[in-house]
Amino acid sequence: MNNNVDTRYITAIVFSLALVIAVFMFNSRVLNRISENNPSQNAQLEPVDIAAPSAIPQNLSEDLTDNYIANAVNASGSYSIWQNMPVQVYISENPYKSVVESAFTTYNNALNGIISFSFVDNPNNAQIKVTFPNRIENTNSDQYVSGLTNNFSSGKYIQSSTIQLLTNKNGVNLSSTAVYNTALHEIGHALGINGHSQNRDDIMYAQTESSKAASLTARDLATLKVMYSNNEALISQNTAGAASEKLKEAIQYTQQVPNKTAGWINLGNVYYDLKMLPEALDAYKKALQIDPSDANIYASMGSCYYSSKKYETAAEFFGYAIERTTEPVEIENYEYMKALSTLSAKKYDDAYVQYSSLVNKYPNKKEYLINYLYLCTYLNKPEGKEKLKDFLQANPDAASDKNIQQYKSYYRL
Fold it and tell me: Which tens digit of pLDDT belongs to each residue from 32-84?
């Protein structure tokens, strides 16, 4: 049996000042496929027997009532999805690459264009990146995390996603079937499913047999179709009671597996969504005791401190997160949140230095530029005018933005 752990995400309050916009990307981290089995000593890279598309029920578009969307959203009932199709996928070179491609193809075949993927050869062109690390967590037990997904979103839409898949444990290969099943599950999270089904047959159930290839059920597909339907009434109807279900599931998991960071991280996330910030911090601290190297735990704590208006402490914890990750998307996210926290703490000189770095690294990000321009005007820094001119030259369409227009007027551009 494989045990899967629920979601991981970071949220924050948007800071408001005159002429300041803070657009924030949150990180939805999913640690999954915690296996209680040792990999087979004889596991080989074999083809996976995948059900033909014709095996998928044909009437799902007519009846979507049998779903688990209440478990798929976060405790506040919200979630993020991909805005445009197909989603571009890059899979790094690995003997299991074709196995993972087949998992994405399964979704393509099953959802008939509602959700679709295409493969790219350049990771810089990808929206979802799949990699195969040697390990995903620090552990000395027979249980091990074999899949991890990070979603980075802005508001309602996912901007990028990373999936990590384990292919061997202690030098012993996992079977292709096990990797395929994990990939199928992780792709569900990459599509925005934050939790797990209560039905053992569904691909998003927390425990799955790894001896045979899994398949997408009618409930899996119905859940995704409701999420991607843009039918607010249908979504609202199906997310009733999400908060209590998420909290119950999270507490139960920490009781069953108390020595895994993922359970405490998820419990902290649920408490955070419910605005129970002291409880969220306590859960994150327990995760930190298990693995003090996890950047996302520090970032989650930073979000808690930010929401508690302890801005200097928040900036400190986002700094800790930056020190503990090499993932470019995470680094940008945490640098922005550190700068935002510093600005919120009214440490304007420090915030100016941090936003200057952001604007230099990411010159086309309007949200960074606006806060930078605010600091330039507040601190009487003349270089803001040149930065705005350079930005408008590269992004002429941004001239219609209300905030940009105010700064154009201020600088007489």
Answer: 444 434 444 444 455 555 444 333 333 434 578 888 888 888 887 888 999 99
Q: Which residues contact 268 (CB under 8 A, 6 or more apart)?
A: 280, 281, 282, 283, 284, 287, 300, 304
Distance between alpha carbon 347 and the CA centroid of its chain, in Å? 30
| Residue 220 vs residues 53, 62, 184, 202: alpha-carbon distances, Å | 14, 15, 11, 6
Give alpha helix (H) positions in 291-327.
295-307, 311-323
315 vs 206: CA distance, rounded Å: 35
pLDDT digits (tens, 9 = 90+) for 26-46: 444 444 444 434 444 444 455
Residue type, 256: Q
Q: What is the pLDDT of residues 320-368, one digit of tens each?
A: 999 999 888 889 989 999 999 999 999 999 999 999 999 999 999 998 9
Q: Out of 256-270, 293-307, 385-399, which region has the weakest mean confidence (pLDDT)?
A: 256-270
How far apart are the C-alpha atoms of 110 and 191, rounded to whole Å? 14
Q: Are 178 and 209 in contact (CB under 8 A)?
A: no
Q: What domains, with CATH codes, occur in the chain?
A: 2-242 (3.40.390.10), 347-411 (no CATH)
pTM: 0.71
Least Cα distance to 339 among 360, 283, 198 occurs for 360
Structure tokens at 121: 């050869």
Q: Scan for tokens 């037990």, then name that residue.
A: 141
Of 162, 201, 199, 152, which Cα lies nearest the Cα of 181? Answer: 201
d(CA 5, CA 264): 10
Give the Cα separation of 68 and 245 in Å (integer). 11
DSSP state of 364: T
Please state the length of the chain.
413
Residue 35 confidence (pLDDT): 45
The DSSP letter of residue 211 is S
